[in-house]
Amino acid sequence: MDPMIVATEVKRSWTRRLWLKIPRELRTVVGGFACLVAIFWILVCIFGGALVPHDPLAQDLPRFLAPGRGNWFGTDELGRDEFSRIFVGARVSIALPLLLVGMSMTVGTIVGIIAGFFGRWVDEVLMRITDLVLSFPTVILAMATAAALGASLFNAVAAALIVSWPPYARVVRSMVLSLRGSNFVSSGRLLGFSPLKSMRLDILPNVRGPILVMASLDIGTATLLLAGLSFLGLGAKPPLPEWGSMISAAVVNFDKWWLGVFPGLAILTVVMAFNFIGDALRDAFDPEAVRV
Amino acid sequence: MTALLRIEDLSLGIRTEQGTTPILRGVNLEIEAGKVQGLAGESGSGKTMLGLTIVGLEPTTAITTGQIWFGATDLLALTGKALNPIRGRRIAMIFQDPSTALHPQLTVERQLTDHMRYHLKVSRIESRRRAEELLDRVGIAQAKASLSRYPHEFSGGQRQRIAIACALACGPELLIADEPTTALDVTVQAGILALVRELVDSLGLTVLFITHDLGVMSAVADRVAIMRAGEIVEAGPRDQVFLRPDHDYTKSLLAALPGAVGGLQTRDDLARLGGIKGGEPHE
Amino acid sequence: MSQDSEQPEVTSSKGRRSYTGLVRYLARRLVTTVILLFGITVVTFALTNLVPGDPVAAALGQRSADDPAIVARFRAEYGLDDPLPTQYLNYLNRLIHLDFGRSWQTQRPVATDLKRAIPATMEIAIPAIVGAGVIGLMLGAVSAYRRGKITDQLLRLISLVGISVPTFWMAIVFLYLFYFKLGISPGAGRLSPGAPAPPRVTGMYTVDALLAGQWATFVDAAAHLALPTLVLTGYTVGLLTRFSRTAYLEVLNQDFTRTARAKGLPGRTVFFRYVLRAAAVPILTIVGLAFGSLLSGTVLVERIFSWPGLGSYAYQSASKLDLFAIMGVGLFVGVVYLCINLATDILYAFIDPRVKVG
Asked: What is the ipTM of this complex?
């Protein structure tokens, strides 16, 4: 098909050009809002501890105070300030998923590059392992693993890592397979690049973009998975403030709506913001999917 | 000399974030009944978009002005459903890549007959009989057996023949052929061109033949229009445009042809260019 | 995709497609499934036996593990002193006889517990996947057809919210709203307190109640399952809308869709005959995946609705480190997942005539 657009050169200021570099979806009102939410939570993550009005662990307030002046989000079953716990909990509930995504991206990329680059039995073995992990629903396998390792935050992340690297490995492998046949990789090898150098210089830069997009879409899933494990008592242990485990307190006292609603809203806003940004990045990288 | 289709001052722009990108700028073209009207131009000159606009398949982000007169109907004024009785029935279209133009999961029979049954309200048995005739007509061997096969079981050239059969199913007056030979081997290409020519001569079909290949154009077209950046720069009978071009752009295109160093002088030069013998004009 | 041979391969005098290729394809899928099945048992075996920490302590609980007599009996019963390959073979042998071990928490064989839990889960999971499938695929189609328009943007936003809501949170909010505040829902559990369960046939209370002709019990059971089903549906709809939109868009951009439109066929025919058929393969995969994630979702949702299904069982056993029980759930869900994948693969073969080639 012919590319039908006839280029019309329009003079634009550098600010305008910079603005247009931002993925289109993020330049809308909703997109801007999503960015603000993400930035807000990252700031809370960093400075949360310094901003809160109460000690998140101190049990010095009346129990089950409804939201009001002084305790905007109410207090929990032990008389702790919900607002402070949510803000301090951001560190665990956001930073850990980010760490998790970073790790699964790294592991998956390494496995995928090795499988795709060396092919043959290496590929076969690694891909069967990938298939195997993918043939379990994630939460069930993560639960089983977390239970087998013992309930702790560290083990929850380890269990989540075990279930979340395979999609990266698959995508990277297929990209490496198509790259391996391309001329610039062959010419690199002909210049005498070692496999390691070829992977680093010719292959890695080309898989980086799509993988980062995939990772940004994965942050939401990781947040939900870790919060879910903590909710089930397989992650964060009391008294550490963490959103998922805070919601589990609301199951017992579900008539005290503020116990569940606020940490849930925190998770929802974080996950939504990251999902939206991930979507926008994907559209920017893969314009075929939305335009035409 | 009666015009089957008359395009008047057709302009088309694609809306984007930064405004409208013009694709067609005031195109005027008359397509005579029973003739092959060639439309040539470089990639991006807007020739495909012109073909799509005639059948109302331009992108949803397009803005159009002007008229496309098909008889007494302005096609451009018809929207959505109103086009269906014309599209596929009176104006058919075939596309560049026959490997993707047919649905991979439907049998050849299904793809040949579904619009026939919708437009002409014929029975299943009748439509199957006609489909078999059509396949035979476009040169598919074992027409009856081929009906129950799937597109992937045929070669590229055969698929393009099937696509042509699909287009002919409802007996259209106008066939828009958008680069129908570009994706094919040279030998297969000659067969398809001969088929198109033969259909015009025997059925009285009118064809708008879109291509970037002037060699192909010289072999098949009666009249030629040259398009550049959304405008038709030159149009006329084939020999006139090829042998006595007016416009500098046409001249430069012709000069760039490998078989025409020093310009085309005679009809014999033209015949060599198209790779077919005895270029009798169809004027 | 494009197999360019000059002559069409003539498979039989009638030109029907060959079935040997199809059989070979199905055989290959079946072998893969069996290999993965073994893989799953290796994983559960490894998780039960090789994890850091004492499996005896994990299986018996710390208190019993302090009693040497119990430990010795346990180790002998499960052959924990044998070499690992022998242990694995014994493990497989037990699995074949549907012996998943004994849950120390319920003191019953895990298989017995599973038999009770599975119908309860299916009673909410099946309506949820069917409902979500219908709604999600419809919304996805609307979104794809109106791409870029306001409807599309709205639907994309809604489905984004759908996949971003923590299911367990949605369950709590719904329970609070519909049960506590509005009193529309009868609340947690499968039946109202004191109501007798219908005579067991399938284990699904609504079905059993109908079979027994107990209309009141049916209404009660249906009212109880409405809310958990709604929560599971909500999450899955978001997922399916998003993925099916992408699948439809891919097809809408294909040349053959343009050909179909150029034939002048009405939009409905183009959608059902051409677009839906081509999108069916990716969509089937998506629905299979969605069912898996739905089963994951039941773990969290059942806990909140005190729904005695697989999810609750998995949660209780995981939180008490009841390893045999949690591996039983893992095995069951893993096998269900594999079966779904196999079923979609088989369906492909019938949807797409090219499958025998690949």
From this structure: 0.83
